[in-house]
Amino acid sequence: MSVFSLAGRRALVTGANTGIGQAIALALADQGASVTCAGRRDCAETCAAIAAKGGIADEMILDFADPMAAREIFAGAGYSILVNNAGIIRREDSLEYTEADWDAVMDVNLKALFFTAQAFAKAHLEHAPRGPAAVVNIASLLAFQGGIRVPAYTASKHGVAGLTKILANEWAADGINVNAIAPGYVVSNNTENLRKDADRNAAILARIPAGRWGEPSDIGHTAAFLASPAAAYIHGAVINVDGGWLAR
What we know:
The protein is of the alpha/beta class.
């Protein structure tokens, strides 16, 4: 069996109804995992795409406006892969940013991520015999940069990088790999306005050594790798998948 195979593994991907989350679910299924596609809206399109390729998928409604929404879903369910992709962004000048927007972003992007990972790890460690397990968090280039007009998002993604490292420190010896991906500028609904703005689009492309926007599949393939036995000795890494943006 290939060291990249996920055959026999069960995965849960949050925010899997569209974009990067959808691509991650497809990539895991392509490597043989059965995938639960979770989102605050239905993931029927993602499940259908997986089924059309001969894969196995089901869907689950999870709304991380309640950061504890996933606390009961892992026990006895046999998941060995968790991808924390769900996230939101609220844009406003820092002088005008509201407590409500700050709390909403932190609840989904950071608090929910931590307590979902905690519930996953508890369920895995209580299961015997245990096989390998992997948590893949989706961070951002703003885990390294400041950005503009997104203070809560930037703080939350710095937090994702930090949580990835502390959870790796605590769980690596128990066979749970915890790593993160920091996507660069990726073609998605969230970046549609940037891509339509000729000046912004040109400035972004000029900074990317690869000369193109990322595709959701670029993130999906990296997530599948980090979940696989090929990444067994990778712990606490935050991998930039950005076309070279941060190297520039």
